[in-house]
Amino acid sequence: xxxxxxxxxxxxxxxxxxxxxxxxxxxxxxxxxxxxxxxxxxxxxxxxxxxxxxxxxxxxxxxxxxxxxxxxxxxxxxxxxxxxxxxxxxxxxxxxxxxxxxxxxxxxxxxxxxxxxxxxxxxxxxxxxxxxxxxxxxxxxxxxxxxxxxxxxxxxxxxxxxxxxxxxxxxxxxxxxxxxxxxxxxxxxxxxxxxxxxxxxxxxxxxxxxxxxxxxxxxxxxxxxxxxxxxxxxx
Length: 235
Ligand code: MN
Hints:
The chain is 14% helix and 32% strand.
């Protein structure tokens, strides 16, 4: 295809056990999905349906197994927060499905970070304006390798943690998600048709906090390849 400006590479994530990659179409994220995190953000999410926001597909920062990713500290913020999350990779198209039918749409799972310019998000909330500038910016969605369901099955329990410079900042269990993967996908499918290539960041446990250039983040979900990331000064 001829293009009138230089074209870019298709955003894509490494997949365990194959050289082939997972091409990224949409990046959906769930708001408050762990009760303790909802509380720290000043709400009680336990009785509400999940809500969603998006990041641009080219904000993913894929990090291969055994590699250390490098995220440049973004512009326009003084409060870059980490949110460790289980990421669901969609492999099969579907809309308007219910939770019992949801998991067949899943290709696999990965560890992700929903990096957030918290000061911009807070200002947007305060003025009842959109969150986009707090959530969707360069390298805002680091993600480790995707583990296919065909190899490792589905993920509904187990530790989810984030260490910064070797110190534990976030710790939870996938069991503590207010809406599990199946219910989350069912809700989302009633808003948007899910398509192969979609990623769904499923929310973060308590303990979100700021990072600075020089910090090393180590994000883990038991059974998945860890996601290790250095925050570096923006060139
Ligand atoms: Mn999040």
